[in-house]
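Hi everyone,

Forwarding the result from last night's run.
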Amino acid sequence: VQLQASGGGSVQAGGSLTLECTTSRNIFSIAIMGWYRQVPGAQRELVASYSRRGATTYADSVKGRFFISRDKTTGWLSLQMTDLRPEDTAVYYCNADLRRHGGSNLWGQGTQVTVSS
């Protein structure tokens, strides 16, 4: 397993959850790392990501509520989710995009996040 994700669960609106993902340092050092989410019947969408140089990108819907962080030395990526809303309910996926280096677009196993109102 090249990407191992953990975290997720069920919370009430306004609550917080943290997702974590680990991978090898080799992958982490060259990949664009990020978190995506998907609801049934919809396309997978970007939630937050790091460029190789450390620039972060967030979906407009999560700005100011979700925070991505990483430790390149250990290959650890996390997504802290605060002030969760029912519309954040989805399956969340860790992603390592290696296509710029001739590699694959890697996905971790999805983890369910459910926010009740």
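Residues 25-30 form the longest helix (6 residues).

Cheers,
N.
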